[in-house]
Amino acid sequence: MSGSSGLRRMHLRISGLVQGVSFRWHTRRIAQALGLVGWVKNLPDGSVEVLAEGEEGALRDLLAWCRRGPELAQVERVEERFSDATGGFSEFRVTR
After folding, report:
1. Which of 35, 36, 76, 84 could form a disulfide with 16 if both were Cys (CB 3.0 to 4.6 A apart)?
2. In the sheet where 7-17 sits, what is the strand order?
3. Mode of pairing for the β-strands spanning 92-95 and 37-42
4. What dihedral angle (degrees, nearest 10) is formed by the CA atoms of 77, 82, 88, 94?
């Protein structure tokens, strides 16, 4: 499924002041607007994790946004990994 579909998977870990600033909810809104599926969640160490699947251009748009974040966020670092999509998601949601 993943080889010919053209869909990609992006896994991000965003560090800095990214919790308590509505980062997850803004990420969900942007991802949905870009037609992406997957999830976003807070991690115990204060970072935010994103797993998204969709067209590579849309993923890169989400990555560019995550490097800035919402107005009150202070993003210090974004770790990124790309791979082939698995097709295991039907929507983009906020998880805990």
Report:
1. 76
2. 74-84, 7-17, 48-55, 37-42, 92-95
3. parallel
4. 10
* Structural domains of the chain sorted by starting position, each given as residue range(s) with its CATH number in brackets: 2-85 (3.30.70.100)
The per-residue pLDDT for range 54-64, each reduced to its tens digit, is 999 999 999 99
Q: Read off the pLDDT of each residue in 26-54 and give the average, rounded to a whole number.
A: 98
Choosing from 8, 9, 24, 28, which is the catalytic residue? 24
Select which of 9, 13, 29, 42 is catalytic. 42
**What is the chain's Cα-based Rg?**
12
Question: Residues near 74 by Cβ (< 8 Å), separated by ≥ 6?
Answer: 16, 17, 18
